[in-house]
Design goal:
mainly alpha; ABC transporter involved in vitamin B12 uptake, BtuC; globular
Length: about 300
């Protein structure tokens, strides 16, 4: 048996896979947070609730309408995005000219409202969501057994993250979005509908949270509390990567997921706090985050 620092290679690779899976969700969720904060300057505390909403939407689409996982993978994020856009246009947009604290308090209240509503109707216990037949089972890689669905989650997350980065950083639409955050009046003078851009931006962030929820549903129990248990870690990921940094959110999400997984192998007692320890160290050495811009 191959050993690395006293740990069997199979156990090490297994925890590395767990870290990659967790990192996939961290990256998707922190990417949505980074998009919303970077372009709207709103600290979106409702992000965990939108993640939970995506998982429940997929579950309800299947249980009431018989809609499969593959259709839910498209429909659920769109439904969550539509919900987010309605919230942004009718309520959140009224707070942009006020202190950032008002946006934070509003989204925090929104999260409590969504979570409380689902707890009232579904209770606090989790509900299962089956892995789609095409992704059931696993494959033997020789050194470890890889569940197919978990491999799919890692690949799908990476593809979506790279696609969103390309959209924001390399396309004309992304340039409009970034310009609107710097000087909305100037951008609007060119005939660009800035309020619509901001609404679409919040919808994009909400869709990413909803997509993460659908991907998580077959792995974790679908529960009203699933977003609450994750949002603090995701905020730590965003802070380490740099508030508003798209690349920082993606890289740091995977990096901290892997760090958490490896810590479970070498020092399990610290696995629950390792992300926050890394955050504290980064903030001491580089307050703007790894990819953030110094003021």
């Amino acid at each position: 048996m191959i050993m690395i620092l006293g740990v069997p290679l199979q156990a090490l690779l297994g925890q590395l896979l767990v870290g990659l899976i967790n990192g996939s969700f961290y990256a998707l969720l922190s990417l949505g947070l980074a998009v919303i904060f970077g372009l709207l300057r709103v600290i979106n505390f409702a992000h965990g609730a939108l993640y939970m909403l995506g998982a429940f939407t997929a579950l309800l689409l299947f249980s009431h309408l018989g809609i499969s996982y593959w259709f839910a993978l498209v429909l659920a994020p769109l439904i969550v995005a539509l919900f987010g856009m309605v919230v942004e246009r009718t309520m959140l947009s009224r707070l942009y000219k006020l202190d950032h604290l008002y946006g934070l308090l509003f989204t925090f209240g929104l999260a409590l409202t969504i979570e409380g509503t689902f707890r009232y109707f579904f209770g606090a216990s989790g509900q299962p969501y089956a892995v789609p037949p095409a992704l059931q089972g696993g494959t033997n890689l020789g050194f470890m057994f890889l569940p197919i669905y978990r491999g799919w989650v890692v690949i799908a997350s990476l593809v979506v993250c790279v696609g969103v980065w390309f959209l924001i950083e390399k396309t004309r639409l992304g340039a409009y979005l970034r310009a609107a955050t710097e000087n909305a009046t100037l951008v609007q003078s060119f005939g660009i509908n800035v309020p619509l851009l901001l609404t679409l931006t919040y919808g994009l962030g909400a869709a990413l949270a909803g997509l993460a929820g659908v991907l998580a549903a077959p792995i974790y129990q679908v529960s009203p509390l699933m977003g609450t248990n994750l949002i603090i870690i995701v905020f730590a990921v965003v802070v380490v990567g740099g508030m508003g940094s798209i690349m920082g959110a993606i890289f740091t999400g995977y990096m901290l997921g892997i760090a958490e997984g490896l810590t479970k192998v070498f020092y399990p007692e610290a696995s629950n706090i390792v992300i926050f320890v890394i955050m504290a160290i980064v903030l001491i050495l580089r307050p703007a985050g790894l990819f953030g811009k110094d003021a």
